[in-house]
Amino acid sequence: MGYTGERVRMWRPASVMVLLMGLTGCSGFLVPAGEGEREPTPSVQAATPPSVMPPPAVDVPARSPDPSPTPSPTGDCPAPGTVVTIGEVQAVMMSRAVVLTLTNCGSKPYRVDGYPSVQALGEDGERLPVKVNPGGSMFGHDKGPEARTLKPGATVRSMLAWVSTQEGGELIMADALELAAAPDSGARVYRLEGHDIRYMDELNMTAWRAELPE
Fold it and tell me: N or C: the chain end with fewer CB closer than 10 Å?
């Protein structure tokens, strides 16, 4: 994950803590790239928020050395026949996480053995220096990779969690996440709007498995 010196928006911890405490009770969601801007989601007093079905994401080709990949729309099932989707934000105290789902949307079996490919992007699509670690979090322990062959339509899942290090420091504000089944697979870009998960220190992800970690 290279960083070529583009402008990165930094936020001080004090400001971020105020923002996080104010948004802890909010039920945010992710908006895939390519959609119009939305008004911020108001606070909802109801016990169960309405379900939101996000519109299609934007597909991008497999990663290249270019530090600023450009989205390239393709069909509903990008090469090599897999698609990664992102669930709604889960909030526990001051922690955040989302479930990533890998689906074999092709017509042939697909072998998976490893971790998702995750990259934070800035407002112009530049890659940001946000470290992504294979590992668990308070949302579940990482049991490591499990080799599986997915039949068409089969799925595996991973937990992506936002973590803070002891070193702390200023957080980076990201505008999107680029997600793929593996580094050499076709990726999709998901915009981050309406939630405090835009502010990042590091990210932890569990390996692709049939069951989520406990």
Answer: C
For residue 53, count other CB atoms closer than 10 A to its CB.
5
- pLDDT per position as a tens digit, 64-99: 333 333 333 345 788 789 999 999 999 988 899 999
Q: CATH top-level class for 10-31+57-64+71-205? A: mainly beta
| Residue with token string 């069909």 | 75
Q: Where are the domains of the chain?
A: 10-31+57-64+71-205
pTM over 0.85: no
Q: What is the pLDDT of residue 80?
A: 80
- Whether residue 50 has pLDDT greater than 50: no
Torsion angle, alpha carbons of 134, 184, 104, 175, to 10: 70
